[in-house]
Structures are given as structure tokens and as C-alpha cells.
């Protein structure tokens, strides 16, 4: 029988919040272990956020070079070397892994590589990647289990060995025709990137519009932008069967409102939702309850139904963003230090890194109406922002929602540098400022943020 090793804290999983919590507690003199199955530093620097944005940037460079003539710059034929694209991404990942290893060493948090399973309350059995097992007992346990790509139960899809974002970001070849199942953030980002690399791309989505959680004007504008680049978009489309094998020849039998059709491609990418990694890890052995959707049930302090066990990030149902997981860390850290911080009412920003990007914070127009919120809506096309006259990047719009107390309750932007401009609106919202502060602010000319003057100038007076 294995001897139990005792720790003040154990973190299971690879998320942003978990690693920062481990480093924080270890620096405070606690004996801390982090158990990771594969990715050192969590999924964000290895297979998700940063690698995808790295390759998206390469795609943007390819697009800029291909259209350089419009700016008076003469170029020759443009081709993309996917091996170099992937090598650039891998070099970034390697540097980030090295950074994480240095952080583990400098903080004295122990990194254990292996599969973890709860065998009793706060007791973890680890099957080590290099062989053997260890048994850990934690005073406090933090579950940072993450999610994985959902593969819909479509006949033939699993057998076709479809790509997920993980495999798509490792492709060192260019798919001739990429079929993308799903019209959400990941699907749209990768669809545009591969179109810009040179692939023919078809997006298939069950919904009647892309990005179903956004307003219709947002969905319509995003579709217009993608179709203008030559991406085929099929909506209200149900994939009934998949035949063949991705990375060779694959056929998707699709039923639409116009009848059935067969899409013939070389590769198929699944980007149709996420499933929490909460099954098969022994949560029931520790008295940890799950929601109906399989996420760990937590309160607004991220405490689970079991004593001295917390959940962090996507597995706890937090928004599926690295910055949400990082704030989960702050919630737990502050409460462990005697504070009173919760996840209730968090102002959570969203960014989708297509080009031009989409950024949103606060309520959407549809959400505000559903909540019965009295509001004023101001909207400004990006072509009205003088900065776009200098860049010829005029697609998209800004939109703001303002309540009867003159506070900004929502901001959406599709346009160049949308994420950066959104941060300005976010700061005003966090400070409870009147919209008139941004309307009347002296903003540098000609910048994209200068458009906030004109946007909030369109808010109707009470």
C-alpha cells in the first residue's frame, strides 16, 4: 500500500486560475502540488488562446501581403509555407513552457505530471506519466479540470477522425477544402485563418445565424465579412452523416431548408461546443456534486459541495476565457485571506479574434430588452471613425447601451482594434461613469478610440 504524502494544497488541472493559485500559496510558504496530465502551463499557452492567435496573426500577414497592391505596394505571387507557420507557433509555445517551468521552480510549487483521480475526500491517486503511482492527501483541494471539444453524435463523424482546434493548430499542410462544423468563436477564427492561408472553407451551423448569443446585427455583419473573403456559410443546416476520412477525402451530408446536399472536402474541423472534464476522475468519491450539464456545482465563492474543495474555471461553469479563470483565482485567493469576494455581477469582456475583431462587454441589446432594462442605444459605423479612412479598414460598427442614469451598460464593437477600444468602455463602466465622460473626453486624433466621442455623442438626451 502506498504511503500518503500530505500537502497544504493540491491543484488538479491545467487552467490559468489553478497555476496562479498554486504559485501564490507556495510563495506564502505552503506545501503545494499541481497535477497536470500533459500540458505544462495549462491549455492556453499550449493548444488554445495564444497558439491560435499566433497562427491567426500569420494568416493576417498573408492577407495583408496578398492585398498590398491596394496600398500602392507591389508584390509578387504570395504563397504560405504552413511548416514555417507552425514552427513559429511551436517556438512561442516552447518559450512559454520554459517560463512556466521557471515559475514552478522559483515558487517551490511542485509540478507532478500524471493522471489524477480522487479515491476519498481530498485524497488523490496519481498515475505518473513516467510510471508508478503516488497518493496525495490535501488540506485544501482545487479542481481546475477544464473542458474538451464535444464531438456531436453524428453518424460517421468520429470515424472520420475530425480535427479539433488542437490538431488544426498543428497542421503543417494546407487543407484544400476545410469543412468547419460550428459557427462560434473557435470555428469562425480558424475558418477565416485557413481561408487566408489559401484553403477553400465551408462553415456549417445548425442555427439560423452565426454567434447565436450576439445581436442579429452583429451576426449579420460577421457573416458579411466572412463571405466577402470567399467563405461559404451554411446556416440552419443539419449534418446527417459524415463519410470518408479527414486529411484525405470527407463528405458531409447536410440537410438545409433548401433540401439536402453533399459537401465534399479534404478535412473536417469540429468546433461545436465544449464538454467539462468531470467524468471518470472520482468526484463522487469526494461528495462533489455536478450540475445537469456535468459542470461542478459551486457557489459564488467557487466552493463545491464538499468541504475544503473549490473548483476553478471552465469546469465550474465560469465563462470559457483565460481571463475568467484568472479572476476565479482572485476570488479564491481573497476569500482564503479573509476577504469577501464573489463571482456575482462580474463585468466579463469577450473578444473574438477574427479580422476585424469582435469585442463586447456588458449586456447586449437583446439581453437588455429581455431583462426589461430601459436603455438608449447608440450605433456608429466604423467608416465614420476617421482612423479607418487612413487604414481602409472600415468594416463593422460600434454600439453602446446607456441606462436612464446615464451609465453605460453594454458596449459592442466590430472593427480594427476592437478589444483595445472596449477596454476604454470597460474602465468607464467599472468606474460607474456617465457616458458623457467619454462623449466629452479629449481623445487623441486620429485613433480608433476617438470614435467613442462620436458614438456617445449619438446618445439621445433624457
Automatic annotation (TrEMBL):
Cystine connections: 44-49
Active site as annotated: 445 (proton acceptor)
InterPro entries: FAD/NAD-bd_sf, FAD/NAD-binding_dom, FAD/NAD-linked_Rdtase_dimer_sf, Pyr_nuc-diS_OxRdtase, Pyr_nucl-diS_OxRdtase_dimer
Annotated NAD(+) binding sites: 182-189, 273
Key words of the record: FAD, Flavoprotein, NAD, Nucleotide-binding, Pyruvate
Entry annotated with the keyword Zinc: no
The protein's required cofactors: FAD
Comment on bound cofactor: Binds 1 FAD per subunit.
Domain FAD/NAD(P)-binding, chain residue ranges per copy: 8-326
Domain spans labelled Pyridine nucleotide-disulphide oxidoreductase dimerisation: 348-452
A GO molecular function held by the record: NAD(P)H dehydrogenase (quinone) activity
Amino acids binding FAD: 53
Pfam families found in the cross-reference section: Pyr_redox_2, Pyr_redox_dim
Family: Belongs to the class-I pyridine nucleotide-disulfide oxidoreductase family.
Annotated protein name in UniProt: Pyruvate/2-oxoglutarate dehydrogenase complex dihydrolipoamide dehydrogenase (E3) component
Organism field: Pseudaminobacter salicylatoxidans
Lineage: Bacteria, Pseudomonadati, Pseudomonadota, Alphaproteobacteria, Hyphomicrobiales
Amino acid at each position: 500500500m502506498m504511503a500518503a504524502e500530505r500537502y497544504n494544497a493540491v491543484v488538479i488541472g491545467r487552467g490559468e486560475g489553478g497555476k496562479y493559485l498554486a504559485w501564490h500559496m507556495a510563495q506564502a510558504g505552503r506545501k503545494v502540488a499541481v497535477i497536470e496530465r500533459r500540458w505544462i502551463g495549462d491549455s492556453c499557452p499550449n493548444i488554445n488562446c495564444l497558439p491560435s492567435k499566433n497562427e491567426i496573426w500569420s494568416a493576417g500577414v498573408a492577407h495583408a501581403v496578398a492585398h498590398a497592391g491596394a496600398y500602392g505596394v507591389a508584390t509578387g505571387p504570395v504563397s504560405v509555407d504552413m511548416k514555417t507557420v507552425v514552427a513559429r507557433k511551436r517556438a512561442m509555445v516552447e518559450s512559454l513552457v520554459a517560463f512556466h517551468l521557471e515559475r514552478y521552480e522559483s515558487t517551490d510549487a511542485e509540478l507532478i505530471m500524471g493522471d489524477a483521480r480522487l479515491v476519498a475526500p481530498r485524497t488523490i491517486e496519481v498515475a505518473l506519466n513516467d510510471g508508478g503511482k503516488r497518493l496525495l492527501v490535501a488540506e485544501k483541494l482545487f479542481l481546475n479540470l477544464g473542458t474538451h471539444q464535444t464531438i456531436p453524435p453524428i453518424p460517421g463523424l468520429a470515424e472520420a477522425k475530425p480535427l479539433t482546434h488542437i490538431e488544426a493548430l498543428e497542421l503543417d499542410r494546407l487543407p484544400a477544402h476545410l469543412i468547419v462544423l460550428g459557427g462560434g468563436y473557435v470555428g469562425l477564427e480558424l475558418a477565416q485563418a485557413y481561408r487566408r492561408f489559401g484553403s477553400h472553407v465551408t462553415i456549417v451551423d445548425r442555427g439560423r445565424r452565426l454567434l447565436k448569443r450576439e445581436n442579429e446585427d452583429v451576426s449579420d455583419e460577421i457573416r458579411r465579412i466572412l463571405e466577402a473573403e470567399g467563405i461559404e456559410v451554411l446556416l440552419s443546416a443539419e449534418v446527417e452523416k459524415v463519410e470518408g476520412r479527414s486529411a484525405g477525402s470527407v463528405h458531409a451530408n447536410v440537410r438545409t431548408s433548401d433540401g439536402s446536399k453533399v459537401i465534399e472536402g479534404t478535412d473536417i474541423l469540429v468546433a461545436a461546443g465544449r464538454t467539462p472534464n468531470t467524468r471518470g476522475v472520482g468526484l463522487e468519491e469526494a461528495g462533489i456534486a455536478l450540475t445537469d450539464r456535468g459542470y461542478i456545482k459551486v457557489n459564488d465563492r467557487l466552493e463545491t459541495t464538499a468541504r475544503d474543495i473549490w473548483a476553478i474555471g471552465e469546469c465550474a461553469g465560469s465563462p470559457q476565457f483565460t481571463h475568467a479563470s484568472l479572476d476565479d483565482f482572485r476570488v479564491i485567493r481573497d476569500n482564503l485571506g479573509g476577504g469577501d469576494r464573489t463571482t456575482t455581477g462580474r463585468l466579463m469582456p469577450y473578444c473574438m479574434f477574427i479580422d476585424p475583431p469582435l469585442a463586447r462587454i456588458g449586456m447586449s441589446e437583446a439581453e437588455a430588452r429581455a431583462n426589461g432594462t430601459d436603455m438608449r442605444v447608440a450605433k456608429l459605423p466604423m467608416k465614420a471613425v476617421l482612423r479607418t479612412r487612413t487604414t481602409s479598414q472600415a468594416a463593422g460598427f460600434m454600439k453602446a447601451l446607456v441606462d436612464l442614469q446615464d451609465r453605460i451598460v453594454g458596449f459592442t464593437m466590430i472593427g480594427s482594434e476592437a478589444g483595445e477600444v472596449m477596454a476604454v468602455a470597460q474602465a468607464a463602466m467599472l468606474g460607474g461613469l456617465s457616458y458623457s465622460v467619454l462623449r466629452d473626453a479629449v481623445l487623441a486624433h486620429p485613433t480608433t478610440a476617438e470614435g467613442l466621442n462620436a458614438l456617445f455623442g449619438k446618445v439621445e438626451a433624457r
